[in-house]
Amino acid sequence: MLSFLGRSIVQKTVTLFFVSIVSFLIIHLAPGKPSQIDPLNPKFTPEILERFQKEFHLDKPLYVQYVLFYKGLFTGKTVSWKDNQSVLKKIWIRFLNSLPLFIVGTLLTWTLSFPLGIRSAIHRGGIFDRTSTFFSYLLISIPGFFFAYVLIIFVVTRFHVPVIGMATFGLGATSWPPVAMDRVWHLLLPSVLGATGGIAILSRYVRSQMMEVEGQDYVRTAVAKGLPPDQVHYKHALRNALLPFATMFGLILPGLIGGSVIIESIFSWPGMGRMAYEAILARDYPIILTVNFVSAVLVLAGTFLSDLLYLLVDPRIRL
Amino acid sequence: MMEQTKTPLAWNQDLDAPSSPRESRFRESYRLFMANRLAVSGFVIFLIFFCVALVGLFLTSGTEPIFDPAMVRLQEKLRPPLSAPNVEALTPGEIPALGIYLLGTDDLGRDVFSRMLQGAWVSLTVGFVAVGISVLIGIFMGGIAGYFGEKQVRSGHTLAVLFTGAGFVLMGMGMWASSFIFLAAGGGLFLVSAVHGPPGERNSGKAPFRALLSVPVMTVDTLIMRIVDIMLCFPSFFLILTVVAILPASMYNIMIIIGLTSWMGAARFVRAEFLSLREQDFVTAAKALGVGKFRIIFRHMMPNALGPVLVSATIGIASAILTEAGLSFLGFGVPPPHATWGNILSDGKRFIFDAPWLTFIPGIAILIVVLSFNLFGEGLRDILNPKLRERS
Lengths: 319, 392
Hints:
A: 74% helix
């Protein structure tokens, strides 16, 4: 057990190291320098350019830049090229904005996909199963940005509520209920959109997992000895079908930072995804690299967590 | 019985005997496929889409296209679908070929139907080329990991790769002299470590640096799977967006980048198939017959491993089309004069309440095409996976 943990941590650190190198090389070896971003800007004189390059070590060789960048990142000194604010602080602020979206989206995904998947597995081949199968393919296939506009048209024309942004600007209400309702309306659409793909995929997965367990011998035995169907489905089958999902909790971690670039830009939601998008537009390399690095850390932490959960949950696995 | 099986004629007559399978594998698959109505409809839609894209390419390209997707008619802007053109206001050349604006016009008075036709080809090629690239890389990496997986990567190889890589980086930075030294050192190490065989009797007691070069580092399998892990750490859409934004805008860059960032699934599938195929008798037989390694890999093993790859490729096309549409939507797609479904939608979003067809037509088109690929892919998966066969 301990040796597994140790090996896993070492391996993931090495992976992270290579990820940092690759992302650094991708950004810096691509054609186009950040200093050339706006050649027509009259304020961008050669002297300023030189100062800019010195300031951010762009005149040093690549490996020195690499070391300096990650040293700065770990000591928290790295600043954005655009506004000289600390990168970590900027990301933290945006992260807090994305957090409600993430939490509501994840809750929706996990609470809706289980009943859907279990029901279609139990009534396999029935009308409910076929309808939900078709709808889950539909939700997987629908482009998020198109679905977003469909929902915006629907909600705005039907309920007459504003949905763009995090809150209505200048609402001016003094009591809390209208303010809270306003926040809920703004939160609803982006988080529903964030959850749709997840619901579709997860419910399919629940269905196939459940179907596999329903075909096992012990379920047939349980039916044969005359147990009521509910007890068979929910006690014998479901408990065993749940096993892989315990481990999937780890895999939702990366969603924390992934945000959705497209959805956050449609809804003008000042979250992580939109910050990353703006950083790409402005060629703000420190932000791009940091977002990349943090999300790689989260992916690795997520897989680590899911391995660990698997160890804890499944008694058949002993290392 | 023995007599009958020897002559082909008699064997043919005996086809209905219970001992032999009633249907060939292909016929059985075909029957299963036809029974899956969703998959069949997906396949039919895909065929229609393919024809439309191909016809659209011919009708919208050239100097005098029948449907001109770039023709601006400012006096006819934002006309709803199926509306007749105002003939007096247009010169004869500007009247749409069908006589009506089948799918309306956009904010510059361009015919949306022509633009959709032009965009169909973009979606199709991006989907197929990107997935083609990713499948090729995936088969190559997965095949090596699955077949040569047990081979050791030795310290000599590692050093050689490091030196060569450093050489290329230095060359990229313009330090020619030092880059050549590094490249030469890397090449030399490659030669040295490629020439000598397994460590053991031959190397023991000989030049110590050779022994130093042949220290096993990891297996080929570990190496490739770690590369896959590294690739999986990148947030894919964000990575694609970054690289597309940095590189000059072109359709080919998008295809290549989507292909380069999505080969990991195919590599894993091929590797898993190869690990089990490698141990099977027909491979041993081929080896015993002295068939070459690459012939075994590509002629004997690959056809058996293609099933899951085909499934993941079909679903990969769907997601590549979605990715391209998303990039176009954000303004990083195919550069503007060329229409794609994503940028028709992106241009139309400003008129979402006045001209909803500019949002709905490309949106529904993307939805239907992606859905058809997903349904077809899932149908294929059911056919190829004996465990999931509904009737057996």
